[in-house]
Amino acid sequence: MIDTDFAFMGDYVLFSFGYYLSLRVSYIMRCAIFSRHGKVYHLDKYIIRGGNPLFGEVEISGAKNAAVAIIPAALMVEGVCRIENIPQISDADMLLTILSEMGAKVRTINKNTVEIDCTSVCREGAPYDLMRKIRASYYLIGAMLGRFGSAKTTMPGGCNFGVRPIDQHIKGMTALGAHVEVKGGFVYAEAPNGVLTGNKVYLDKVSVGATMNIMIAASKAQGKTTIENAAREPHIVDLANFLNSMGADVRGAGTDTIKIYGVEKLHGGTYTIIPDQIEAGTYMAAVAATGGEITIKNVIPKHLDCISAKLREMGVEIDEYPDYVVVRRMGKLTRANVKTQPYPGFPTDMQPQISTVLCLAEGTSVVTEGVWDNRYKYISELKKMGAEVQVDGKTAVIEGVPFLTGAPVAACDLRAGAAVVIAGLCAKGETVVEDVSYIERGYQDLVGKLNNLGADIVCVSEPDEYTSAVV
Ligand code: EPU
After folding, report:
1. What would the pLDDT profile of 263-277 be if each residue is shown by its tens digit?
2. What is the CATH number of domain 13-25+64-272?
3. Is ligand 1 within 6 A of the CB of residue 207?
4. pTM score of the predicted model
C-alpha cells in the first residue's frame, strides 16, 4: 500500500514537474519573442490562400472565458480539482503556470484535462511578470482574498480596446469588507482579520469580470452576498456550477441577481467546462463568409441563439440539434444591422467576425459597439483587403463589396485576428496575417480546424532579422 502510494506520488511529482517545465519553456520562449528589449517581435504568421468554401465537421473546445475564471478559482479549493475540457490556449497555460508558481501541483491528464491541487499554495509565490500579461489575472484578486484574506496582483493586461477599468471589481471587494488600494501598477487588497463578509453589491455597469470576481471571493465570505445588475453570460453560469461542484452555494447565476451563501471550505471535485460560444460563432461566421456547409459539434445551441438569429437574417441557414449545429450558406448574403450588448444580446466578442461577413453582404449595414469604447482597430486591416467601412466612434457603416482581395494584415487583438483570418479565407489571392500570437491566446488550433474544413492556411515561424540574431 505504502509502495503504491509512493509510486503514485513519484508519478505525480514527475508529471507535475514535466508539465510545469513545459509551460515554463513555452513561457520563456514567449518572453523572448515578445519582450526582448521592450520591443515586440513576431515569429508566427499565417499565409492564407483564399477562395475555398468550407465543408466538413469541426469540434468546439472548452470556453476560454469560463476557463480563465475557473482556473484562478481553483486557488480557493483545498483538494484536487480535476478540470476537463480546458481549451489548449496560451491564456489558460499562463494561468496554470501562475498557480504552479504559487505552489499548486498541476498535473496534465490529457491535452484538455488537468488536475490542480492548491492545498499548499502561498500568496508570495505569485509571478507578477506573468499576471501583467493577461486580463483574466484580475480573478486572482477575488481568489486570493477568498483563500488568503489578502491579495497582491498586478493591474491586468490583455487585448487593448479602449479603457478597461476594474472599478466595479474594487467596488465589489470593498463591499465585502476588503481594503483595496491600487498603487504603482499593483492591486493590494486586505480583508479585516483575513475574513470577508457578505453584503449587497449593485454593479453600476454590467461587467462579466466583476460579476465572476465577486462570486469567487464571496464563496468563502461570512454570510450572504447579493450581486445585482449581474452579467448573465454562459460562462457566469459555468463558474457558478464549478464553484457549487466544489461545495460553494451560488444561486441565480444566469439572471441579473446572484446570491452567494459563503461556506467555510471548498473541497476537490471534477468539473467539465462548457463549449466555447464565441469559438462556435467564429466558425459560423467563417462559413457564412466563404459559403459551404459545416457541422459544428460540441455546442450548446441555446448559447448561440443571438448569433444564429443574426446570421439567419443575413441569409445563412442553420439547423439545430441537441449538441451540434449545421450551418450552410449557398446564396447571397443580405445586409443587417448589429448592436453588441451583454448576454443575451449579440456578443461584442463576435463583432469583428460578423462585421467581416457584412463586408460581403449586398447593401449598407450598420454595426454599433455597445460594450467597448474602441473595438474597430481591425477595420483598417479589412480596408487593406478592399472592404468599404466608415467608423465614427462606436458605429461602423459597412458598404458591401462583391469580394475582398488578399493583402498583408495584422491581428490587432484576439477577435480582430479571427476577423482577418475569415477575411483571408474568402479573399481572392493570398493574405498574410502577422501577430497571430493574439489569436492563439483564445483559439485552440484555429489553423488545423479550418484546414480540416478545406481552408488553405500555412502557419510559418519566421523570425525577423533582429530576432534571429538575439533569440
Ligand atoms: N467596466 C467598467 N468597470 C469595471 C469593469 C468593466 O467600467 O470594473 C466596463 C468595461 O470598460 C466595458 C464593460 O464594462 O465597457 C464590460 O466589461 P466586462 O467587465 O464585462 O469585460 P471583461 O470582464 O474585462 C470579459 C471578456 C472579454 C469580453 C467582455 C464582455 C474575459 C477574460 N474577457 O472581459 O472577452 O469582451 O467580458 O463580454 O473574460 C475576448 O474573449 O475576446 C474578450 C475580450
Report:
1. 999 999 999 999 999
2. 3.65.10.10
3. yes
4. 0.90
